[in-house]
């Protein structure tokens, strides 16, 4: 199956070093494999750093916990003319919801791929998150909608 883009979405890929089995000998620390030049590397255009400043970080990919400090993601998307962003991951009721709501506040179309997320549901937090996202106009779809 291939993923088909229905509208502009943002993604960030980080290059991964690949190793190939070596014939005879290997580099120490590579478990008998020889490190080789990656055969396919994704072009990384932006890195959003999160989770390293205890008193400033938040759940959102767009704003820090002080609700003023931008992460740079809004500017990155808007500079490239992107209007829609799709969300998947953990946790639906925290990181996904906060990010989707902040995307809407930034004037972007936000789409949560429901079956590609999972919530924590602490004291009804999952129902509240879906309610808040629905009220804000965040779209909710299934992954099959994107697959061709």
What are the key terms here?
18% strand; alpha/beta; 3-stranded parallel β-sheet; two-stranded antiparallel sheet; 22% helix; Rossmann fold
Question: In a nutshell, what does this entry contain?
Answer:
By secondary structure, this protein is an alpha/beta fold. It is built from three helices and five strands.
Looking at the overall shape, the CATH architecture of the domain at 50-145 is 3-Layer(aba) Sandwich
| C-alpha geometry | globular
Q: What fraction strand?
A: 15-25%
User: What strand line-up does the widest sheet have?
Assistant: 3-4-5
Which sequence of SSEs, written as H and E, runs from N to C? Answer: EEHEHEHE
Overall mean pLDDT stands at: 75
| Helix-and-strand structural type | alpha/beta
Report the C-alpha radius of gyration, rounded.
Answer: 19 Å
Distance between the termini: 6 Å
Number of helices: 3
Strand elements, count? 5
What is the highest CATH level, the class of the domain at 50-145?
A: Alpha Beta
The CATH homologous superfamily of the domain at 50-145 is named Isochorismatase-like
Summarize the biggest pleated sheet. 3 strands, parallel
Q: pLDDT below 50 for ≥5 consecutive residues: which ranges? A: 1-39
Report on the architecture of this protein.
The protein is an alpha/beta fold and 148 residues long. The protein has a domain at 50-145: Isochorismatase-like (Rossmann fold). It is 22% helix and 18% strand. The chain has helices spanning 73-79, 92-105, 125-136, and strands spanning 19-21, 33-35, 84-90, 109-118, 139-141. It has a 3-stranded parallel β-sheet, covered by helices on one side. The chain has a two-stranded antiparallel sheet with strand order 1-2. Helix 2 (92-105) packs parallel to helix 3 (125-136). The longest helix is centred in the middle third of the chain and has 14 residues, at 92-105. It starts with 18 loop residues before the first strand and ends in a 7-residue tail after the last strand. Mean pLDDT is 75; it is low at 1-39.
